[in-house]
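User: quick one, fold this
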Amino acid sequence: MKVLSGRASGLTYMALAGQLHYTYSSTVNVGSRVIDKLGARDMAHAVFVAVQLGLLDPRRRHGDHAGFAAHKYRGEEPCDDCWEGERAYRRGRKAARRVSKATTA
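Assistant:
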């Protein structure tokens, strides 16, 4: 339920993994099992099915926006969840640059 509600709130699997103290691959695996159990095509469809079944309350969602970039575009201060997602994204990009730099050197 935490993975499903986190994805419904717009969090990435990477951000969820950090919050739940799981590995990224474990979080993705849990998400895949949720999709299968709900008989959905993808995570967006799983969220829709969960709301229809009453498993998720749509009023408790983080918001209907694209995340950090959407806040910035609107001139808003990003919310805590979006900041956390952005930090996780930046950490991932930084790690990828380090790996890339190490393999080319």
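User: anything notable?
Assistant: The chain has a mean pLDDT of 85.
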